[in-house]
Design goal:
Layout lengths: L7 H5 L9 E2 L25 H7 L5 E2 L12 E2 L2 E2 L28 H4 L10 E5 L5 H9 L4 E5 L2 H9 L5 E8 L3 E2 L1 H9 L3 E9 L3 E4 L10 E4 L1 H6 L1 H6 L5 E4 L3 H11 L4 E5 L1 H7 L2 E5 L8 E8 L11 E8 L7 H9 L5 E8 L5 E6 L3 E6 L1 E7 L6 H13 L2 E9 L12
Parallel strand pairs: 5-6, 5-7, 11-12, 11-13
Antiparallel strand pairs: 1-2, 3-4, 7-8, 7-15, 9-15, 10-13, 10-14, 16-20, 16-21, 17-20, 18-19
Helix pairs in contact: 11-12
Length: 417
């Protein structure tokens, strides 16, 4: 670990750095051999690189006379480390005896673990405005986090990549509306890793400005999936209104409040009504109470797969000779008794069409696809590793999007809270 020194621009400007500020040397001991922990994958130097950066980031700065040092806590992105490094300032006065270091506490797996998955102070990006269901999913995935709204899905990806946010929570499928294809495409385009999932029951409400009655309404606005999920209920309410799609549910509520639209209602959450001063004309208007959206949690670094709790793994693959290998790929999981929870196909952007010329009958045109598969197994399990090794033999492209804990929270139907 090299000695910490002030940046060069401070050296050139004596006014930019107090004369009394001094820097302390930070040392750390590193073992180059691999480390293995129970229920985890064998780890090498690269696997713990970010954790070592956290452990070595504690710096003692002296702001006054020598011996009076300010207290600084090791932190990366606002997270305190779980180990006390017991750093001691360098003794610049040779007449004083050197301070004796306290006994060093041995490191544990807890000390070396990444930033807390469910801790406070995490910055979590989501698509939408405050009051959106994605914000509620972010709060369920990371309680007490700092939720960062983004106007587009891709902006949420970029916020994590640019270190503006620590995590992103984005929807990938709904029990009624199906897959959110945009986010599947973005998962392939960006290099983030899935580190968890959360399932959120969706509870729709019909919102309008205070004093507005249902018979005064001429249109209802919301996200296209929300409109589709409430179609039959709106008809039963006897509303003869136009239905217009907007970017998100909470954004519809915000738009009505900002423009004082007394002939328009929004389909959004009860929290959006509280945030934007709207009244609830009808509660729980989704056509099916079993309306659940699945969100994935994304991070810059993958988590360590384990075997002491249910895990799910997400992959994407393709083959340059078409979809004929799909049966062989699926059989690799079936032979090892690995259950698939989802399979999704998306057009192959680089090779959307494959042409096969036949001198007798002409040219056949085949659409090419990428396949997304979720299966119930951890990458720490030998059967999952063997299955992917076999899949790799049949495919020209294979990528593991993440191996992460499954959402095992108790099931409860959609409700107002």
């Amino acid at each position: 670990m090299q000695t910490l020194t002030p940046p060069s621009h401070h050296l050139n400007n004596p006014l930019s750095l107090p004369r009394t500020r001094q820097f302390s040397r930070v040392s750390c001991i590193y073992r180059s051999d691999s480390v293995n922990f129970p229920n985890a994958v064998g780890l090498s130097r690269a696997d713990w690189q970010s954790s070592c950066a956290i452990l070595s980031s504690k710096v003692v700065s002296q702001e006054g006379p020598i011996g009076k040092s300010a207290d600084h806590v090791a932190a990366v992105n606002g997270h305190k480390t779980s180990v006390d490094l017991n750093l001691v300032p360098i003794n610049h006065n040779n007449s004083q005896p050197p301070q004796q270091l306290p006994p060093q506490k041995p490191l544990t797996i807890t000390d070396l673990s990444p930033a807390p998955m469910h801790g406070s102070q995490l910055r979590v990006a989501y698509q939408g405005v405050p009051g959106a269901y994605s914000e509620a999913a972010a709060g369920k995935a990371y309680p007490n986090c700092e939720a960062i709204p983004c106007d587009q899905f891709e902006v949420a990806f970029q916020a994590v990549e640019l270190w503006i946010a620590d995590r992103a929570v984005l929807p990938v499928e709904n029990s009624l509306g199906g897959s959110i294809h945009r986010n599947y495409d973005l998962l392939l385009r960006h290099r983030l890793h899935i580190v968890g999932e959360v399932q959120l029951p969706v509870h729709h409400c019909l919102l309008a400005l205070p004093g507005v009655r249902k018979e005064y309404l001429t249109r209802v606005i919301s996200h296209p999936q929300a409109l589709a999920q409430c179609e039959h209920t709106l008809t039963k309410l006897g509303l003869n209104v136009a239905r217009e799609a907007v970017d998100d549910t909470a954004g519809a509520a915000e738009y009505i409040a900002a423009n004082n639209l007394r002939d328009t209602a929004a389909i959004a959450s009860a929290r959006a009504a509280d945030l934007y001063g709207l009244q609830v004309l009808a509660d729980g208007i989704q056509d099916d109470s079993s309306n659940v959206t699945r969100f994935v949690m994304l991070a810059r670094e993958p988590i360590i797969p384990r075997t002491d709790r249910p895990f799910k793994t997400s992959i994407v693959f393709a083959h340059d000779k078409g979809t004929s290998v799909l049966f062989k790929v699926l059989s690799a999981f079936a032979f090892r008794n690995i259950s698939l929870t989802k399979i999704e196909s998306r057009p192959h952007r680089n090779h959307p069409i494959r042409l096969v010329d036949d001198a007798n009958v002409g040219t056949a045109k085949h659409f090419e696809y990428m396949f997304y598969v979720d299966f119930e197994a951890s990458m720490a399990e030998v059967r999952a590793q063997n299955a992917l090794a076999e899949v790799q033999e049949f495919t020209s492209f294979l990528r593991v999007l993440g191996s992460y804990p499954m959402d095992m929270t108790p099931w409860c139907p959609s409700r107002g809270d």
